[in-house]
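Z., the sequence and structure:
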Amino acid sequence: MIVRMSTAGAVVQDPDDLADLRLDTELDTERLRKALTTTGTGELTDDGTALLDVAVLRSLAVMSPTAPGWSKRWVAMIEDAERRGLLSADRRSVRVPVSPARR
């Protein structure tokens, strides 16, 4: 699942691909930081990593049609993120890499 972040907000692309969770953006660091916090999507931890709000991420993902069994695969993805140390202690945020948007 790719989260595309712009000044207008976040959009989830390919919500069924739960194996590849990342944040793509064309925004510079300061504009990305502001967009994440203004929209409530998450926060930038450094230039290469962001913490995305799990509830916001899920709500964005389900706005697109998803394959049968998506909810179970979502839970499995969150559990895997926790095992890998990518989930915050309160389970509200998941750490994802930030990369330049692909055109």
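The chain has a mean pLDDT of 90. The two ends are 16 Å apart (CA to CA).

Let me know what you think.
H.
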